[in-house]
Amino acid sequence: MIDNPRSPRVRAVAKLAKRDGRRETGRFLLEGPQAVGEALAFRAGLLAEVYATKAAIERHADLARAAEQAHVEIAAVTEKVLEAMADTVTPQGVVAVAEQFPSTLEEVVALRPRLVAVLEEIRDPGNAGTILRAADAAGADAVVFSGQTVDPYHPKVVRATTGSLFHVPHVVGVTLAETAEALRAAGLQVLAADVSGDDLLEARPDLAKPTAWVFGNEARGLDAERLALADRALRLPIYGQAESLNLATAASVCLYESAFAQRA
CATH top-level class for 105-263? Predict the structure, then answer.
């Protein structure tokens, strides 16, 4: 039982909530039974450490069984230790440390993708994680975090994906220009989701084609230089009185429009 919240081991886990800690170690923090369960199911080999309180182990017997089957040891900790490790104010009794596992553009292209989400300069972790989750649900083949987009291993991004981070290849450390060039060369059309674009309904016949959707910054969208990298800009029509749509909501609609068209 680990019971000292100030021990070096506990502090090392807590440091992963910060970008510097993740960059130095190549690891990231997972919180909650859902995220840890998805990691065990899809990427068990990436799990370096798993910690849980006695109450959480008893409450999530299925998680304990999955860990045992994957030959992953769960270290017992006190409530105070878990609180010191976690990024959330009210942790759910389980945290883990996992190795980062980004894909490269070359690896994504080799998959012959038909649907890709590109996040350009998106800063809100909740938006980024929710878009990745929506991309997973829509059957996207990859998600690209380009430019200064928030780190996909940020604890809030990881939580917002609710485990989808382990399902979809994701690329980091690339520019929008090289991403657009690589995906276009792989046969995808590059569509920018932007309020300056054409009505999405006008483009519906073309959405069955392999597509990379580019989603820009929450406040500024995509500037002229970035829009020029796309084959076409499209906007979602607003029929009611709403001033605009939340970025993650709009991205979800765009991805699903493509998913419906490709499966029609």
Answer: alpha beta
Domain definitions of the chain by residue range: 8-99, 105-263
Q: Distance (Å, rounded) from C-alpha 185 to C-alpha 173?
A: 19
- Architecture, CATH, for domain 8-99: 2-Layer Sandwich (3.30)
Partners of residue 146 on adjacent β-strands: 120, 174
- For the whole prediction, is pTM greater than 0.85? yes
**Distance separating the N- and C-terminal Cα atoms of the chain:** 54
Which residues are CB-neighbours of 198 under 8 A, at least 6 positions away? 232, 233, 234, 235
Q: Give the tens place of pLDDT for each residue, 37-79.
A: 999 999 999 999 999 999 999 999 999 999 999 999 999 999 9
Region at 121 (left for phi over 0; alpha for psi -120 to 50; beta for the rest): left
